[in-house]
Amino acid sequence: MSSTQPPSAAPVDPPIPVPDVPGADAGSRGLPRRVDLTLRQRLIVDSSAIADLGLRTALASVVGAAMLPQMALAAFNSSGAKQQREALQFYAELGAEKDGELSFPAPTEVPRISSRPANPVAEWMANGRVHNIRFNSSFEAVNPAMRDRCESYERNNVVHAQHWRHDDGPHPTLCVIHGFMGSAYMFNGLFFSLPWFYRSGYDILLYTMPFHGRRAEKYSPFSGYGLFANGSAGFAEAMAQAVFDFRSLLDYLEYTGVDRIALTGMSLGGYTSALIACADDRIQAVIPNVPVVMPEKLVDEWWPANMLVAVGDTLSGTGDELSTAAAMFHSPLNYPALVPKDRRLIIAGLGDRLAPPQQAEALWEHWDRCAFHWFPGNHILHVSQPDYLRRMTRFMRDFMFS
Known about the structure:
The chain is α/β, with parallel strands linked by helices. Helix content is 43%, strand content 13%. The chain is globular and about 55 Å long. It starts with 23 loop residues before the first strand and ends with a helix.
């Protein structure tokens, strides 16, 4: 394992120019109040929040479209509605145990990895050796009633990731999990300035979430469609598989000699990274970025998806109480973090309306008020991103390199 100390210089500028309006670490009371912001910060927060509302409506429409088949099943098939209620009851009872080992059992074997060189553009971007890796998922649905359906997903049950490795490795590895519909490796590599982290001495691993990218089933209308196409039960199993398959990647990294792993992710990836930190103690650092932690509450604000959820609950005979209890099965707020407090860092955008900063603040409270950094931007426009990239670098340096 290489122990070279990374340089302390600031990261390169992000590929998308953003206003240089710095954020800060949260105080003892959490995120700042509006009156605590400078005039310039308030202008950035307000304008970015307005822009996010349009994006939120578009995204909610996409999610709603994915939910329509399951709603039709509940409307025209009473047995389908009964199955949905029984599934929610299953996840509610499992979540009530608050047992991460029970909810997210560990893989029992190291995956058999297939690896091939990535395209020349990826190697040009990294300026190093890049491989695309894949392996068959050994995930078995947590809910026995969902196992046949989950096993039928041929493409989703092949796990994909991209691995940037140094020739003198293995090196400390930064793992990155993308957000909903945002699985493209190049986009994530540029957005998070991953070439800079690679030059700083990190190996990089980009993980593809279930039903995204090459894991999307044939004829899926968009990347991520399958995440919501099978209702609440399907989403619960997708999150369970996301955790399970990533733990298989941890087994692979460990097998190749990696002993220091940091994990970050944006939006849905932030949610997943926080959940993984509750299931596996091999993570040295976890940095959820604009995370969602209570998706059932989030959808309540997402028009028109909220209307479709309400109709679906009526048709299936489920209520808010059961839906909320079932959602706790896959919420990081339901389990203790296995990553030590001083190795947890949360990043939030004050103008974010897709994953409102209150969601990140709820995780901060649950995680014993760990390190918490905010920026005055929205879900996509990460204003002063170099500021939080420097914050991430300082945060990880001492325990990732020694």
